[in-house]
Amino acid sequence: MKHTFKTALVAALLVSTPATHAAFSGERELEISVASLSTFPTFTVPDLVSLGDSARYVGSTPDWHIFAEKLTSDEGGMPFDSVYGYKVPITAIRLEGGHAIDLTDQGFYAFVQECSTFKVTGSEGAMTNLTVHPGECLFPKTAD
């Protein structure tokens, strides 16, 4: 009986001990370029708002406001990251605190979790007002 108790205690400790860290796989950055922007789905403001707190503001081009999100799922007991980019027509949103992205010379990588958060602050006619909170997530792409 003593041996059975020790075995059960050791088994319980091994099963209940949490892992000290988990390995991640998947994507953590999003390519922002003329070519990649053409593949992003076009969102309406309600689509964007429906993403909740996971949505981040990346920047704006002359035609689009760019947003992204990073989602983590559990694949076979290991976290797996996926990043998604979205574009909203420039005419749908008035930004306070936004910034321009120039994609004429090169693209960028956006580390989505570092991008700016934002808050809907109202609307005027067909335009929705957003306030962008500070965040820096863009890094120039270097030639491959």
Q: What can you see in these coordinates?
A:
Helices cover 17% and strands 42% of the residues. The protein has one domain. The protein has helices spanning 2-16, 34-37, 45-50; strands spanning 25-26, 29-32, 55-60, 64-75, 78-89, 93-96, 108-111, 118-124, 127-132, 138-140. The chain has a 4-stranded mixed β-sheet with strand order 1-5-4-3. A 3-stranded antiparallel β-sheet has the order 2-7-10. It is globular. Strand 3 (55-60) and strand 4 form a beta hairpin. The protein has 3 helices and 10 strands. The protein is an alpha+beta fold.
Layout of secondary structure:
Layout: H1 2-16, E1 25-26, E2 29-32, H2 34-37, H3 45-50, E3 55-60, E4 64-75, E5 78-89, E6 93-96, E7 108-111, E8 118-124, E9 127-132, E10 138-140
Parallel strand pairs: 1-5, 6-9
Antiparallel strand pairs: 2-7, 3-4, 4-5, 7-10, 8-9
